Amino acid sequence: MIIENKKIEDKNLTWILRCPTKFDAEELSKLRVKIDGETENLDREPGENLLTQEDFEKIILEDAEAERSVFLLAEAEGKIVGFTRLAGNNLKRFRHKSEFGICILKEYWGYGIGRVLLENVLMCADSSGIEKISLTVVETNTKAIQLYKKYGFAEEGLLIKDRIHKDGNYYNTVIMGRISGK
């Protein structure tokens, strides 16, 4: 799915919301590794489950052609500062739902980028007939959990001792879902 570019002016930052092109693939690959190293909120350590430039090129092409997937990025000050991906499922039993996640450079937290990415993902999901969106979030990421709840997500479960962070402690993962009004 492709959306039109949007200029966003919010919280003293002007940025562009757009779908990526194959020319963004290299920057996205590097950005993902950097973001993974900035926070414990994501599932990966830097360099784990690496997506190469070629991997991103394939994902960008597939998502552009897919009816129930969308890949959006935030571009500020001439660089990509965050992205989100709503990934549809092609299995017949799960075609009604998609999964998504958001990644934003730490220096751009607090500018409302996550909120705008989420709002646009939800618009795309609703317009394409997706009935359920699922996500997981580490239990200590309370700001994200509050944001998701504000937009209709409910806690569906808790995975106990699901992950180990650099501090050696175990953390729980919250499973959340949003069901459309259909």
Protein described:
By secondary structure, this protein is α+β, with helices and mostly antiparallel strands. It has a domain at 6-130: Aminopeptidase (3-Layer(aba) Sandwich). It is built from 4 helices and 8 strands. The chain has helices at residues 25-38, 53-65, 113-127, 142-150, and strands at 6-10, 13-18, 70-76, 79-88, 97-104, 132-138, 154-164, 170-179. Strands 1-2-3-4-5-6-8-7 form an 8-stranded mixed sheet, sandwiched between helices. The chain is globular and about 40 Å long. It starts with 5 loop residues before the first strand and ends with a strand. The model has no long low-confidence stretch (mean pLDDT 92).
Layout of strands and helices, then pairs:
Elements (H helix, E strand, L loop, with lengths): L5 E5 L2 E6 L6 H14 L14 H13 L4 E7 L2 E10 L8 E8 L8 H15 L4 E7 L3 H9 L3 E11 L5 E10 L3
Parallel strand pairs: 5-6
Antiparallel strand pairs: 1-2, 2-3, 3-4, 4-5, 6-8, 7-8
Strand order of the largest sheet: 1-2-3-4-5-6-8-7
Examine the secondary-structure arrangement and name the CATH architecture of one domain.
Answer: 3-Layer(aba) Sandwich
Share of residues in strands: 35-45%
**At the fourth CATH level, what is the homologous superfamily of one domain?**
Gcn5-related N-acetyltransferase (GNAT)
SSE sequence, one letter per element: EEHHEEEHEHEE
Mean pLDDT: 92
Give the fraction of residues assigned to helices: 25-40%
CATH fold annotation of one domain = Aminopeptidase
Termini separation comes to 21 Å
Task: State the total count of DSSP E strands.
Answer: 8
Count of DSSP-assigned helices: 4
Query: Biggest sheet, in brief?
Result: 8 strands, mixed
Q: Which CATH first-tier class of one domain would you pick?
A: Alpha Beta
- The coarse overall form would be globular
Regions with little confidence, pLDDT below 50 for 5+ residues: none
Secondary-structure class: alpha+beta
Rg is 16 Å
